[in-house]
Amino acid sequence: MSHISSRINETERLAADIERIHELAEALLPHIGDAPEIPPTSSEAAERLSALTAILHELHPADVATALEHLPQKERALVWALVKPEEDGDVLLEVSEAVRESLIEDMNEAELVAAVEDMEADELAELADSLPDKVVAEVLKDWDDEERAQVRAAMSYRDDQVGAIMDFETVSVRADVSCEVVLRYLRRFDSLPDHTDKIFVVDDHDILQGVLPIRKLLVSDPDDLVENVMARDIVRFSPDDDAEEAAAAFERYDLVTAPVTDAANKLIGRLTVDEMVDVIREEGEADMLNMAGLQEEEDLFAPVLKSVRNRWFWLAVNLGTAFIASRVISHFEHTIAQIVALAALMPIVAGIGGNSGNQTITMIVRAMAMGQLSGIQALHLLKKEIGVALVNGMVWGSVMGVISYLLYHNTGIALVMVAAMTLNLLLAALLGVLIPVTMEKLGKDPALGSSVLITAVTDSGGFLIFLGLASLFLI
Predict the structure, then answer these.
(1) Tens digit of pLDDT for each residue in 414-458?
(2) Do both 8 and 112 map to the same domain?
(3) The domain that contains 191 carries what CATH number?
(4) Where are the alpha helices (DSSP H) in 269-332?
């Protein structure tokens, strides 16, 4: 209970700090703009600047990153200028890619070099695409050949591959040494790499033999050889593996770290749980954005034109599908003119179909993200979703049929309502499965625009089904 309370208090504290940062930055802008090196024009402004600086210097870089993401552009520029220079690199690693771009735009080449020159190879590789080529070249110039090779290796992989996010900082030992020797070796480190829960066991050519869990090392007889206590059946990854699949494996096997090996089984790096958490979070955010028809992650306070560029495509698609829906309705103007009640009821048919389709599509995309869906499973799931849609259509269609009868005292309208809602829910179930499955087969993100597409189909389909049935049986 105390741990839960502590986390809640920490969350509340950060929220309070962000609110205070916003208040101070907003109040300071009229006095110093985004240039804190200019002395404030009043003692009150000087006190605010001092208070703002003190808050920022006490925050963890990850918290500073969160605060920056919550600020409008002018306030963000002011706060960014007040961050400790030695923490610039850590903050750039923590902020979202959209916000990172705006921060880098406010830095000159010398500031960028100073921010990233002390980073690890995997961290520099993560930022390299956002940095000017001159900055990356300047930093690599002072690194040794091995570090440069590591950066280039990480940069050679796609963002969604294990090689792009692996950590090169590993601790390895030979299998023919004793546990006592390993313990003495570990004591020579000032500190072990973050998230070290196991030591990798390799031969003279760095070929992975197994892993030695730290917890097992601590309780083993000091005279035992590593080869007698190490684990040989281990989860390992290739740099070409999909990062999302690796994250699923971390979740499935409760991993903290795992080795990354090349085709010859040579140890070249490791994956850590913090990177896997980031992969899971980013994938969830990307799916949510794609389903809403957003091209990419968007800075909340980005300039208007930049946000327009991010959103225009699927809005155009939506406009086109809405026009199609309007043309469907126009073909039934005569029917609607004779039975005005249809105009009031048809949005209900379209709306419930869209909602049902979005439920199905969300579940399918989630199953795909977790690797739970294959071709044969999709067929079984389609049958199940059609069954669910049939039951829901009959139940809720009957409810709306009764309500329609009570409103308009027309048995024909009530029966058409039941049939139209059932058929549109069946259409929504069918396409809720087929759209993401087809997108994946085409090599696209299954979530990409899926919400827009399913809504478009259930709107046009719902209008066509409802008004078509009305024309056949009521006119």
Answers:
(1) 999 999 999 999 999 999 888 888 888 887 777 777 778 888 889
(2) yes
(3) 3.10.580.10
(4) 273-291, 304-330
